[in-house]
Give the backbone structure.
Amino acid sequence: MNEEQTQKRIEQIENMIHDLNHERFSLLTGYNLPPVERARMQPPPSFSNGGKVHPPQDKTKLAQAVQYARAEFANAVGGAADEQTQAERLKVCSGCEFRAVEYNGKKDEQGIGWCSRCGCGNNDRAKLVEKVKLSKATCPLEVPRWGASEGVGGSVSSVVDTVKGVANTIASVIKKDS
């Protein structure tokens, strides 16, 4: 698939996402709403912290899902973080007191583990080795230890990676809830 076909496919995927649930997505996230409407949708002061991400106990499941969807969408369109950024993020996370190799009854055989503060759970896509790849992901601590970065460029591979990641995450949530 050449660059033009890739761009066309990305546009098709973006349009499908947009068309699937535009109105609901707009209401939940403020996307494509006038600034006044977006301002009315801001979380109450108890959830506000200057744009910083809160520990999971302060975030609703919906807020977590929206944040995750945005990071995955950015991964599909813009690609993963570059390898140097991934390595730097992983180094920070490896020394963090909130990293857990065993988390919610599951052990990471690679020995890297999960963040116990983000609220993403212990599915395979939430492992730190995967999370650091998402260019628009950020450290969930009140004072983040690393932030969003630019992706290396969207491709068919990044779209496939995102679709597989989202599908596996949904399957693990459904399995957990049943």
Observations:
- Strands lie at 99-100, 102-103, 106-107, 114-115.
- The chain has two domains: 1-42, 52-177.
- Residues 1-42 form one domain.
- The longest helix spans residues 3-29.
